[in-house]
Specification:
Radius of gyration: 15 Å
Shape: globular
Number of helices: 5
Strand content: 25-35%
Number of strands: 7
Length: about 160
C-alpha cells in the first residue's frame, strides 16, 4: 500500500477500535490486553502460513471445557506467559469490515479463557491464538454458511 492508503487504513482501524470499545465485553478484553498491535504488523502475523496438524469440526454447544483445556495446554510449555490473539467479529457490521482492520492483541496466557467466551457472543466469526514465538496457532472459526458449527485448526510454522 502507499503511504496515503496506509494512513487511511490506520484511521479506519482507530474507528473500528472505538466501536469495539463501545461494547462492554470487548472493551473489558481490550483493557486486559498487554498491548495492541495495529496494522500493518498485525497483518504480517495474521497472514503467516502454518501447517495444520489437527482439525476439528464441532457445534458451538459442544465446545467444552476439555477443548478449552487442550488449547491452554498447547501454549503451556511456553517460556513466556503471553500470547497473541486476533478476533474478527463482535460488532454489528463486522462482516462488512475488511479482516485486516481488526488488530492483534498481546494477552497473558491465563486470559485465553476470557477470549474464548467470544465464541458465544453475537457476530462471532474468527478467533486466532498465536504462541509467544508465533510458531504455533489455533484458529477457531465459524464454518461458512453455518451459524453454530466451529472449525478448530491447530498448526505449527510451515
Amino acid at each position: 500500500m502507499t503511504t496515503l492508503e496506509d494512513k487511511i487504513f490506520t484511521l479506519k482501524q482507530k474507528n473500528l477500535m472505538k466501536k469495539m470499545k463501545e461494547i462492554h465485553f470487548l472493551n473489558n478484553l481490550i483493557l486486559d490486553s498487554e498491548k495492541i498491535i495495529p496494522y500493518p504488523l498485525s497483518c504480517d502475523i495474521i497472514n503467516r502460513t502454518f501447517t495444520p496438524y489437527r482439525n476439528i469440526e464441532l457445534s458451538k454447544e459442544n465446545f467444552s471445557l476439555s477443548i478449552k483445556n487442550e488449547i491452554l495446554n498447547f501454549f503451556a510449555p511456553e517460556e513466556n506467559d503471553i500470547a497473541y490473539v486476533y478476533f474478527y467479529g463482535g460488532i454489528n457490521d463486522s462482516a462488512e469490515i475488511p479482516i485486516e482492520l481488526f488488530p492483534l492483541f498481546i494477552i497473558k496466557i491465563k486470559n485465553i479463557s476470557n477470549w474464548l467466551e467470544l465464541i458465544n457472543k453475537p457476530n462471532f466469526y474468527c478467533l486466532k491464538f498465536f504462541s509467544h514465538k508465533i510458531d504455533k496457532v489455533i484458529d477457531i472459526s465459524l464454518l461458512d454458511n453455518e451459524k453454530d458449527v466451529l472449525s478448530i485448526s491447530i498448526g505449527v510454522n510451515a
